[in-house]
Amino acid sequence: MADIPLVMGITHHPFYYQKTSGPRSEWSDDAVRMAELAKMMEDKLSSAQPDALVVVASDHFHQFFMNNMPAFLIAKMEEYDGIFYNETREFDLQPCTVPGAAELSGQIATGLVDRGVDLSFSNDLKLDHSVIIPLMMIRPRMDLPVVPLLTNCGAQPMPTPRRFFELGRILREAITEVSPGKRVAVVLSGNLSLEVGGPRQFAPEPPHQAFDDRVTDLLERGDHEALIAESQFDRLVETGNTTGQFLNFLTALGLTDKIMTCTYAEAMKRKGSSQPYFVWEKAGVAGG
Fold it and tell me: Is the pLDDT of residue 200 over 80?
């Protein structure tokens, strides 16, 4: 059986590169803290010594659009191009390539379908900042083969919160049945309360701090039933027009339920939306 040594949840804040690429003396306090948390998670990933990394993320209407909106899609490629033209224009993100794990992707895809996930797949996928930013933060060398698993977090009808939780449970089973001795870490890419293009986008405080604090506590405690109740569509829209990407973190609770503990949970306070940072490890690993 393969092993899942580490699960992490992290922001894909598109301005991370802009905020942390200049001289450190010019960084804001927010940028300093984001970089500190990224380094902590980078060290956790290095210590886990994974052979590959599954990245559960969303697509920002680059390849998922109203003419073709899968619920869940896995990519099966040996190498991925990253970053779209508008992300270079708006966020200064530069095109890059990321190694893939096509065979592992296929094995996981088969495991998901065999367990009842209606999964789409792609042999021709480009990655946007929802995958690239987490990699920049936790594996800046971008040398670890990735398995991208994209989810619909942005357009109704979206999968239900419970389905995101179940996806994590099934994903764990699918990963552990692959090659014996393989170590596969998982990172979930998302956000807490978030407004993009709405009246709260540039507010100095998060769109809904109470939601951020509550779901961070529930994630830390592993209370998936309470978190499912807190993540219904109407509630997410109330907290911000882009809060749907929080649903990916429910997948983490399915992955870690009863076998891993949340060893770090922070809704990083900053000017604007809070930034999520979560780590789940097996007993006795924390601090190692």
Answer: no
